[in-house]
Design brief:
- There is one protein chain.
- Helices cover 28% and strands 25% of the residues.
- The protein is an alpha/beta fold.
- Helix 2 (71-85) runs parallel beside helix 9, helix 5 packs across helix 6 (163-175) and helix 7 (223-232) packs across helix 8 (254-274).
- It starts with 40 loop residues before the first strand and ends with a helix.
- Bound molecules: ligand LLP.
- Ligand LLP binds at residues 94, 96-97, 115, 138, 245, 248-249, 284-287, 328-332, 368, 372, 428-429.
């Protein structure tokens, strides 16, 4: 996603290197509400506060780097999704985005369900008191232990992902004397990315069972139809619906439209072939968020309306009763609610290029830039500055040149060691994908609400690292 260069008047303006940047913002101190959590503001003193707490105080109390999560915003997003979809639909938060006991409690209190995709996520959900019937278990290679634990706990939904799994879940449920509600995950031949979707050949992936097999609905004689047949024959499984997830960080609803149409095509086929109307459709997650002010995501009520309309239209056209819809947003709930707070260490000005600003974290707390070429924004948050914009690259402290946090950003030219920077929109897929590379200690997650801050995931210690090292 390359953007036009030639910003007006930044430092290093004579020779502008290749990069993904637009003109520097008119005011480097401004905080664009599209990328910052709801309660973030710049105080009259010049520093930034969240939930009424000055980030300098947070850095002092909790150290840096730290993920700072705006609990008010997190809960508000849960409510916005729940209210947008209403009582006839279910919102399953995708725990892979970020999960902790506190988050599970927030979800529970705000009336959301939870999608887990591993034994660890399931254990966290159950430990924190999420009712099992509000949990869905995903995964393309669930272990026997994971299946057993889920069935035993009584999870509301297991999303079946392969023929082997149909047999394994059926066997486990029969052995435990249960009838396990299941959905079948299908691949609809659509893959969506941000502003576009591609509707060809995306059955070539590890997830789900392909619908493909011809016919204009796309719901032909593929493995998905065969999976339905098999599940319907098994007494220990209750087939409740069909599941489709088409990708992540999507802004364009067209991919969902194709997906819904094809899933409804399969429901129609199931009715015609087996005389059964499946009562549920899950269209997965994947709704995009703003990482930079150039991103323009849709609001939950627009998404709910678009998806609801598509499903209703398709079902009416097919003469089907409209099934109960569910969705699984992860990033769209957690992502915008947190920023990562870093302290500036060294600065290197490369004449005619840019200034490398090193912070005290890096690819161990945010792998997304290195892995996906993701774009982020960044701001100086410990003070305001009237200095001119300086073309910068925010990098970490790891022994790797790809250790980039924010590839292209404008920061004030008077930036100095000891300043605090914050990178917004790091609530999803940052802590959950963090590593101990170079024996880095994974940062804490600090939840802030109404002038109170508390650690919900503590910082790792060297002791934690050494405890695992039993040689
Ligand atoms: N449901 C299913 C079945 C999924 O596989 C996923 C994400 C979600 C829901 C939630 O998607 P979301 O609403 O968060 O986009 N690590 C990548 C994202 C991987 C998403 C995998 N599946 C990243 O950092 O961008």
């Amino acid at each position: 996603m390359s953007r036009s260069a030639h910003p007006a008047g930044p430092r290093h303006a004579d020779v502008l290197p290749e990069g993904h940047y637009t003109a520097p913002p008119a005011d480097l101190n401004s905080l664009d509400p599209r990328v910052w959590a709801q309660t973030v503001e710049r105080t009259p003193e010049g520093a930034v506060a969240v939930g009424g707490l000055d980030v300098r105080r947070l850095a002092e109390e909790f150290g840096t780097p730290a993920y700072v999560m705006d609990e008010t915003d997190f809960r508000a997003r849960c409510r916005a999704w729940r209210d947008a979809f209403g009582p006839d639909a279910d919102v399953y938060y995708a725990g892979k985005a970020f999960l902790s006991r506190a988050v599970v409690r927030w979800l529970h209190e705000e009336g959301l369900n939870l999608d887990v995709c591993s034994g660890g996520e399931l254990a966290t959900a159950l430990d924190a008191g999420m009712p099992a019937e509000r949990i869905a278990l995903h995964g393309n290679n669930k272990s026997d232990e994971e299946i057993e634990r889920a069935v035993e706990a009584g999870v509301g939904r297991i999303v079946l992902d392969s023929f082997q799994e149909i047999a394994r879940v059926a066997h486990t449920a029969a052995r435990l004397g249960r009838r396990q509600p299941v959905q079948i995950r299908v691949t609809v031949g659509v893959e969506a990315h941000t502003h576009e979707f591609i509707a060809t050949a995306h059955e070539d992936q590890k997830f789900g069972l392909a619908l493909a097999g011809g016919g204009s609905s796309g719901a032909g004689e593929g493995p998905a139809a065969e999976a339905v047949r098999r599940v319907l024959m098994l007494d220990s499984l209750e087939l409740t619906g069909i599941h489709s997830h088409i990708g992540s960080q999507i802004f364009d609803m067209a991919g969902f439209e194709v997906s819904a149409r094809r899933v409804v095509g399969l429901l129609t086929r199931v009715r015609d072939e087996h005389g059964v109307e499946l009562p549920e459709i899950d269209l997965g997650g994947g709704l995009g968020i703003a990482y930079t002010p150039e991103d323009d995501p849709r609001e939950p009520h627009e998404i709910a309306k678009a998806l609801g309309d598509i499903v209703t239209r398709e079902c009416e056209a097919a003469g089907l009763a409209v099934p109960r819809l569910s969705v699984e947003p992860g990033r769209a709930i957690a992502g915008p609610t947190a920023f990562t707070l870093y302290e500036v260490g060294t600065l290197k000005e490369l004449e005619g290029l840019r200034t490398y600003v090193s912070v005290d974290g890096g690819m161990s707390d945010n792998i997304r830039t290195a892995l996906y070429d993701a774009e982020y924004s960044v701001a100086l948050v410990s003070r305001a500055s009237a200095a001119e914009p300086m073309l910068s690259r925010v990098v970490g402290k790891h022994c790797e040149s790809g250790d980039i946090v924010v590839r292209d950003a404008f920061l004030p030219a008077d930036l100095a060691p000891g300043d605090l920077l914050a990178v917004p929109a790091t609530g999803a897929y940052c802590r959950s994908m963090a590593s101990n590379y170079n024996h880095a200690l994974r940062p804490p997650v600090v939840a802030v609400r109404d002038g109170q801050a508390r650690t919900i995931v503590r910082r790792e210690t060297e002791e934690d690292l050494l405890r695992l090292d039993v040689g």
